[in-house]
Design brief:
The chain is of the alpha/beta class and 335 residues long. The protein folds into 2 domains: 7-132 and 303-334, Medium-chain alcohol dehydrogenases, catalytic domain (Quinone Oxidoreductase, Chain A, domain 1), CATH 3.90.180; 134-276, Rossmann fold (3-Layer(aba) Sandwich). The chain is built from 12 helices and 15 strands. The strands form 3 sheets. Strands 3, 4, 5, 6, 7, 14 and 15 form a 7-stranded mixed sheet that branches. Strands 10-9-8-11-12-13 form a 6-stranded parallel sheet, sandwiched between helices. It has a two-stranded antiparallel sheet with strand order 1-2. Helix 8 (232-236) links the parallel strand 11 and strand 12. The radius of gyration is 20 Å and the shape is globular.
């Protein structure tokens, strides 16, 4: 980025819409206040939730002009008064901001409360470190606290090439579970098998519930679903009695109907989840960090990052790539 020491580059949008609504602006570079730090970004990871937020279809509304971005890594560039938890030059990760509209991370510098920083895994480069935490923190409650991906269990992961599902595949295998990846076409089937999925179901060509029952014998034990929509009924019909189906996203824009009789016949429990439930609980967050950090550092868990490289001035292209469904893993902006 070519700009003076007094300015920075910041992405925002003035109305809901697609990636074309995003603009890159030069603004004054702020100084951190008491308890804050300034982060020079080295990696920004894009999430489906950011795309939904841009489109006006997310949990939270935007206040215009709105910032965007909830996940990344960077170097501590300046310290506010009273900050002793980090040092200048230290690489850190950023927890999702409390208000994406006001404090979204799509910028080359960000002011962040010191309590919103996470340790950055030492064994990962900037691109992989940028997305080390959010996908795995999304998994922590159900996979670790609830133990739903225990030894020998069958876990179904729709949108199998998404960053969270790839992380779930990684963590499930670490915990001894077996995984079934769901993908719409056979374009990514081999890549998903190479990524370690125990089985892959092509949803546009195969009967979802019949295929899952054939693979598992009795039905799946746990479904971790970011898609929702019309596919949900087939997933409910694919599980064994007592299974858990958790919906944590709505990649399918169609209405998600709850098929009561299918659910009654399945004997399953259905629930919904957002990672904000965890990140706002400091005690559980501490436990999650202590659980995952050694696994990142020793290589047991590794985020999957898409092969395409983008810079901040290509933010619209990066979001278009994210929304194309052509990516494999997390789309990351480099600096």
């Amino acid at each position: 980025m070519n700009h003076s020491n007094q300015t920075m580059q910041l992405v925002n949008f003035d109305q809901y819409g697609g990636p074309e609504k995003l603009t890159l602006n030069t603004v004054s570079r702020p100084e951190p206040g008491k308890g804050e730090v300034r982060i020079k970004m080295t990696g920004l990871a894009l999430n489906r939730s950011n795309s939904l937020f841009l489109n006006g279809n997310y949990l939270f509304d935007a206040s215009f002009p709105s910032r965007i971005g909830t996940e990344g890594t960077g170097i501590v560039d300046a310290l506010g008064v009273g900050v002793t938890s980090v040092e200048l030059g230290q690489r850190v990760n950023l927890l999702p901001p409390q208000n994406e509209s006001e404090s979204g991370y799509a910028a080359d510098f960000n002011i962040v409360p010191s309590q919103s920083l996470l340790p950055s895994p030492t064994g990962l480069d900037d691109r992989h470190a940028a997305t080390a935490w959010v996908p795995y923190l999304t998994l922590y409650h159900l996979f670790v606290e609830k133990g739903l991906a225990a030894e020998g269990k069958w876990v179904v992961l729709p949108a199998a090439s998404s960053s969270v599902s790839l992380a779930a595949n990684n963590l499930a295998h670490h915990l001894g579970a077996k995984t079934i990846g769901l993908t719409r076409t056979d374009v990514k089937a081999q890549a998903l098998k190479d990524a370690g999925y125990d089985a892959v179901v092509i949803t546009q060509k195969e009967d979802i519930s019949a295929s899952i029952k054939k693979i598992t014998g009795e039905g799946a034990d746990f479904v971790f679903d970011p898609v929702g929509g019309s596919q949900l009924e087939s997933l409910i019909a694919s599980v064994k009695p007592g299974a858990v189906i958790n919906v944590y996203g709505l990649l399918d824009p169609a209405d998600t109907k709850l098929p009561i009789f299918t659910l009654m016949n399945s004997g399953a429990t259905i629930s919904a989840y957002t990672v904000y439930e965890l990140v706002t609980d400091p005690i559980r967050m501490k436990s999650a960090i202590e659980y995952f950090l050694p696994l990142f550092n020793n290589g047991s868990l590794t985020p999957t990052v898409d092969s395409q490289h983008f810079s901040l001035d290509q933010i619209s292209e990066a979001f278009s790539h994210l929304e194309s469904n052509d990516q494999f893993g997390k789309v990351v902006i480099g600096f």
